Amino acid sequence: MFDTLEADIVVIQETKIQRKDLRDDMVLVPGWDVYFNLPTYKKGYSGVAIYTRSSKCCPIRAEEGITGVLCPPNSSTKFRDLPADQQIGGYPTPGQLSSDIDEAQLDSEGRCVILEFPAFVLIGVYSPATRDETRIEFRQAFIDAMDARVRNLVSMGKEVFLCGDLNIIRNEMDTAGLPEQLKKEAMTLDQFISTPSRRFLNQIVFGGRVIGGPDEGREKPVLWDLCREFHPKRPGMYTCWETRKNARPGNFGSRIDYVLCSSGIKDWFVDANIQEGLLGSDHCPVYATISDSVSSDGVIIPITDIMNPEGMFTNGQRQREWSQKDCLPTSARLIPEFDRRQSIKDMFVKKKTPSNTPKSATPAADSQDISDSPNTSSITVNATTVLQGTASSASSPRQWLSQSAATEPALSPTSPVPKRRAEQPAPYTRPPKKAKAALAKQPSSKTGPGPSQSTLMGFFKAKTPTPTVNPDERHGPINGNNHSPTTTAETALRNEPSTAKESQPKQSFEADNIEEWDENTVEHKTNPTTYRETSIAMEDEGKGKTIFDPIQNKESWSKLLGKRVVPKCEHGEDCQSLVTKKPGINCGRSFYMCARPLGPSGNKEAGTEFRCKTFIWSSDWSGRQ
User: Model-level pTM greater than 0.70?
Assistant: First the structure.
């Protein structure tokens, strides 16, 4: 995933996991650190995670929750009560929260992770949605807390970068099918823009449409909508689609995911956009790209200098490597079940050790030693170095190997290489013993299987059923696999005489055995004596009784129990079968409709490439194969 996104900071919302669900591939990602905010009230619900690439950035503070009332791991002190040098700050005051909902309840659903870098404060949030009336008060309380936290941080002089799933449509340009929705709900556009959640978003961002004037305490906007800054009039820039309607192919969706930043760092960003082509969720990623060099206090500096703790980078050059000691208390790497552990990939990376390198070694050998022996846990940088070195000199490793082989005879007896060669024959003394033990048992298997003993092939090859026939009329062994060559072992196995196998044939489902059974049956029927006896028996049994034709019976049952044929839509394609879930008289009834996605209009269309108006109740359709 990280290779596909090509990002240095990845914010994920709605993880829907608990602490017990965390695995090594989620926490011990080579070259990455991760911070989770998991729900404590609703298990496996909501959840936010932020991954940071250790080779590019390292936070100096980290918190869980939006209000600051949670506590760091192994501590009973709230984040807002920590010493000033350990706080991120900007915590909402009681006067800024108008709702009666407790602050601890707001942070109990795992909806926010906050990281502070020397450059800015990163807030990754998953805002609650209004699914029913019981969630309206909780949603508004969370929005008020988020607004207060952002404004307080900006007033402190800190830069803020807010991103995530806000579950808010900003204006009419950010959703499809709005006119039909307003007409259905008997609502005007001004009323749509003036809903509390949209009013909050349009007041906190620059250029937002606020009807009736701003609210008290929200007079000035503080954030910029980066995607709209780079694409101010782009239609259909949606980030979420309804999966039940398969609305993504027709781009019938809404924009509810944002990347917002404060004014002081707005000029740092060179691009912001959506990645609607990346599938895997009902949302698509939204990204913003920061320039490699930015202006801070009127001075142009590399971005890495202010995205890491002091002293880690100077003028864009790394001064010290990232280590486990740089993990903050809330880092998932410090969870007891993951602390001081390595991923499988880390086990194949060795630290640099001093060695007696011949002076005649080529420069390619030096570069190979450096790239193959990193002395830090930042694997990503060293892996990149290896790839670049390989691309620039593809023939260097072969040359180094050939030169090393040529200089081996000249090495002294005390060199490490001859010592390892002297010890090499020792491990090979054990396999011959095992081989002898295996050979000792070999003669017993050559004596041939007994009456109740089968060969090894018998465990992997199903036995061929043999119909009972007159010994005088029995022919020679028949090889039923006429369509493919038979090996000597298989032929010997089939020709083994066994009274138990002939008297108790076992049914086999292998293709070649089915062919053998059919041929034996054909031979049995074509034999003149057998066919005559069978015909007489059928005549005797049929006197005074009704004989049913099995072929006719099969056709009758097939018509009754045959597979249903799916009806075709107006496009000539198979319809999809769905079940009505809407309460009412038709709830639970199944029906057929066009399987194509809805078009941009959001309605069924005739004569277009999108979903047509085909609708058939399953009870009205009787087509069968």
Answer: no
